[in-house]
Specification:
This protein is mainly α. The protein has a domain at about 195-320: Serine Threonine Protein Phosphatase 5, Tetratricopeptide repeat (Alpha Horseshoe), CATH 1.25.40. Helices cover about 75% and strands about 0% of the residues. It is built from 17 helices and no strands. It has helices at about 5-15, 35-40, 40-55, 60-70, 70-75, 80-90, 95-110, 115-135, 135-150, 155-170, 180-190, 195-210, 215-230, 235-250, 255-270, 275-290, 295-310. It is elongated and about 70 Å long. The model has no long low-confidence stretch (mean pLDDT about 90).
Amino acid sequence: MTDGEAERLLGVARELRWTFPSSSGFPVRRDDAVAKERAGERAAFADAARSFAEAGREDLALEVAAHVWRLWIMARDIAGGRAFLATVLDAPAGPSRFRARTLYGDGLFAFWKGALRESRARNEAALADATATGDSEALALASLGLSRVALSEGQAEEALTHASRALALARPLGEAMTQAPLHMSAQAHRAAERFDTAASLFAESLALNRRLGDEGMVVVELHNLGHAEIRRGRVDAAERAFSECAKLGGTDDPYGVAMNELNAAVVAFGRGDVKRARSLLASAESRLSKDGIDPAGDDQTEIRWLRAELARGGDGSADSR
């Protein structure tokens, strides 16, 4: 690639504008036509970054990477994203805000691949660079990445510490920046079985995602809120959340269908209808097994909880607030 073409692509990369990516990985405005068009140009951006790195201009290679790595997220090309970022992160370079943001991106890719140790290492390196440069956004991102890893490792209190820091750093940077840290704070409280606090934070997150127009995260938080409400004995509130979740989520996704059955099962249990709860749970688990789907960690927790409650023979009756 010529120097001129690499410089041109750097300019294009600088023009990309991202709202904060949701915890599911998409930017909030994932239907943005420009971003979609640029996602098809991933190879050209990778070549530009490689060209800068080979010319000893690691700072510009990292700047390209920091601006464009989310294009690989949009394309769901996780392996390709890691390969791209390796070309710039393996080159020697001092701390910078672009390196910190690129390290966070690779940490997210590693997280999605289930490489938690690598993800933690990348996010810790991102935190070190962000601290050295004083970049608030990079600090928020690195803290967010560490919260994801800690929660996946079963460390709810560590996850909450990182998520709370990310949230505090994100608030001055705009409402959209608080999206994922708020979600992770709620999830950490839920994992620690502080369901009153979790429900309050999920409700706050739900309202935020409605304002942002992130329909996917609205569905996610309705699902999460419903389970927090069930655990605090508010069956009617849970049923309202699950009903809207099912309506917005559609019926063409096997995982979503299984989760709708799980949600109906916990409501039935909360109403004292043990027979129906057992039937719906069995159907949900059978569907997941048939389709070879491993539930997300939080959903696995709810499945195990309901299975254990049913095994104990309780009727699950709760109030109807």
